[in-house]
Amino acid sequence: MVNKRFATALHILSALAYHEEQTPLNSDLLSQSINTNPVVVRRILKKLTQGGIVQTQRGKHGGVRLAKKPSSIKLGEIYDCLHSRHLISMNEKPPKKDCKVSCSMGKIMEVLSVGVEKSVKDYLNRQSLCDVVKKI
Amino acid sequence: MVNKRFATALHILSALAYHEEQTPLNSDLLSQSINTNPVVVRRILKKLTQGGIVQTQRGKHGGVRLAKKPSSIKLGEIYDCLHSRHLISMNEKPPKKDCKVSCSMGKIMEVLSVGVEKSVKDYLNRQSLCDVVKKI
User: Which chain B residues have a beta carbon less than 8 Å from that of A135?
Assistant: First the structure.
């Protein structure tokens, strides 16, 4: 599950896009806007940096900036940076070998789980960070 | 999140559909096939009964049966019976009143969260329990 990480990441990126022309924001300012702990923000910023969506400038006037234009950041890309587990999970216990249903469910659920992820990604990829910021 | 409940529910319903012509199954037999606790199975059966997908016959030859044909049970209907929380959650903390980004994020995330649910439901509703059973 993505938990609230997607909401927090989208909040961070929306703030960065909205204040794009100004001094870079930092995790303290961002955490105030989100009303969360700066540690949570830094943890997500790390993932967004690894995913090439934001970049950090060090130094006195440093902070966080978007690494590319809001119009070229698709929401599915943000989702990809954050999640590790599939939204619909599988039964991890071994199947009962003499039960045909039990032996088939792993493969059936795997296909469904991948299909669910694809549906979510396709939906999110139809929207960019630019579309989100227009609603602020 | 649906957790593993969707996988367990689909396993239960697939077993019921696969053995449709035989004696009704019960939660003990179903839990053996799933390799889980009968309590877990009974909890999910309760939800599926409330959702009108299965029905319970009491008595010596009693057990659980599908309440309708596998071809008319869409996977989205099963999903609906089980889940309570949205797959993508919102930040529940109050927004920072003097921050325009913070004040807009609740509505933005609500729309996205509903969109994600709809994508998942649309995908699942394109498949029936009958389609699943054909793969066993």
Answer: 104, 107-108
